[in-house]
Amino acid sequence: MKNYLWLALSFLLFMAFSCKSKQPLTDEKRTALQTHLLEMVTIDQIAAKVKTGKYSAYTNEEWDAFKDSVFQHNQKIIEDYFRRFGYLGYQQVGKESSNHFWLMVQHSDHDPAFQRRVLRAMKKQVKKKNANPENYAYLFDRVQVNAGKKQVFGTQLTYLVKTTGRAIPKIGLIDSANVDRLRKEHLLPPLKEYLNAMTELHFQMNKDNYIEKGVTAPDLH
Fold first, then answer.
1. Buried (b) or exposed (e) across 174-202, using 16+ Cβ within 10 A?
2. Which InterPro entries match (predicted)?
3. Exposed site from 11, 35, 61, 91, fewest CB < 10 Å?
C-alpha cells in the first residue's frame, strides 16, 4: 500500500477553504486558491506523464490506481470550486492558475458531464477574453472524443503504433476543409504543422521500437 499523504493534505486544504460561506474572491482567498491549484496540478502532471523517480517501482496496476486517485481527487475539488466561483478565468485567479484549473478539467475524463458543464461556461469566458481560446479548443475536442464524436480542431491524437507511428486526429474531423481556419481563430498552428511536431515527438520517445520495425525516421504528413 503506497503512501498517499499528499491526498489527505490536499483534502484538508480543500475543506478549510470550502467550509467558509460563499463570498466574493478576496485577495486572501484568491491567493489560497492559486496555491491550492498549483499543488494539485503539480501532482496532476506527475500522473499525466510516464512514471519516473520513486514511481518507477510501481507495478502497472499500482500506477493506474495512483493516476485514477489523482485525477478523481482533483476533479472533486475543482468541481466544488466551479460550483461556487464559476469558471476560474484570468480575472478570478490570473492566467497561470486559470490554466491549472483548465488542465485538471481536461484530465477529468472519468466525469464527462462535468467537462461539458465547464466547456459551456468556458465558451462565454473566451468571448469575454477571460479564458484561453487555445485551451477551449483542446477541451472542446476532448469532450467530443469522450462522447465518441469527431473533432473540430484535431487536438486529440492517436498514433499508428503498429506501423509508422504517424499522429492522426482521434476518431477524425468534422470539417477537414475548414480546420485550419478554425484552428487559427483559436490561436492554434496549422493542423499539418501540429501533427508533424507530435509525430516527431512520439517517434523520438519510441525510437528504438520503431527502428526495430524498420522505421528510421518520423512518418510526417
1. eeeeebbebbeebebeebeebbbebbbeb
2. DUF6624
3. 61
Q: What percent of the chain has pLDDT over 90?
A: 87
Instruction: Kindly state whether residues 119 and 165 are assigned to the same domain.
Output: no
Q: Read off the pLDDT band of 19 (50, 70, 90).
A: very low
The answer on pLDDT for 209 being more than 60 is yes
Q: 171 in the Ramachandran plot: left (φ > 0), alpha (ψ -120 to 50) or beta?
A: left
- Are 30 and 81 found together in one domain? yes
Question: Closest Cα partner for 69 from 107, 39, 119, 101?
Answer: 107
Look-up of cell digits 501540429: 194
Indicate if 109 and 176 belong to the same structural domain.
no
- Enclosing domain of residue 189: 157-212
* Cell numbers representing residue 158 in the block: 492517436
Stated pTM of the model = 0.87
